[in-house]
């Protein structure tokens, strides 16, 4: 049963789009922490992410429906618009402590509350 669920989850996350050439130097390393975040109708299913300063963070952002994106300005994270049914993987180094907002940059989604908080401890 567990195997089937894992397989289903893997299929849901495919195909995976790789982003931005500027993240290539991070591709060879194992991330310190990985979050899978689903984007749906004007919300993310994870409203708070907690990491440690210096972590190599990987976000796998899956778009269930509609058009969405995930942006964290302070860390130059931007998935770009993710088509429905697709996932995008982004990586960054959390090299500054504090609380940072992540948000959907599509339309007015940020204004209607499609946001979350990244906490770097
Ligand atoms: Cu959105």
Mind sketching the topology for me?
Elements: H1 2-12, E1 16-18, E2 33-39, E3 48-51, E4 56-63, E5 71-72, E6 77-78, E7 87-93, E8 98-103, E9 115-120
Bound molecules: copper (II) ion (CU).
The site of copper (II) ion (CU) has 6 residues, from loops.
Please supply descriptive tags for the structure shown above.
121 residues, mainly beta, Immunoglobulin-like, four-stranded mixed sheet, three-stranded mixed sheet, 1 helix, 9 strands, disordered N terminus, binds copper (II) ion
Strand order of the largest sheet: 1-7-4-2
Separation of termini? 37 Å
What percentage of residues falls in helices of 4 or more residues? under 10%
- Do you know the CATH architecture? Sandwich
Bound molecules: copper (II) ion
- Sequence stretches where pLDDT stays below 50 over 5 or more residues: 1-7
CATH first level: which class?
Answer: Mainly Beta
The oligomeric state is single chain
Strand percentage: 35-45%
TL;DR of this structure?
By secondary structure, this protein is mostly beta strands. Helix content is 9%, strand content 37%.
């Amino acid at each position: 049963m567990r195997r089937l669920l894992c397989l289903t989850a893997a299929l849901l996350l495919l195909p995976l789009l790789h982003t931005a050439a500027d993240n290539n130097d991070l591709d060879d390393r194992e991330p310190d922490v990985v979050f899978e975040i689903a984007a749906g109708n004007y919300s993310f299913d994870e409203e708070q992410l907690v990491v440690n300063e210096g972590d190599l963070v990987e976000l796998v952002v899956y778009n269930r429906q509609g058009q969405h994106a995930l942006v964290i300005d302070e860390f130059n994270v931007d998935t770009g618009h993710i088509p429905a049914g697709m996932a995008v993987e982004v990586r960054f180094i959390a090299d500054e402590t504090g609380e940072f907002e992540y948000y959907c940059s599509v339309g007015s989604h940020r204004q209607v509350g499609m946001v979350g908080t990244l906490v770097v401890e």
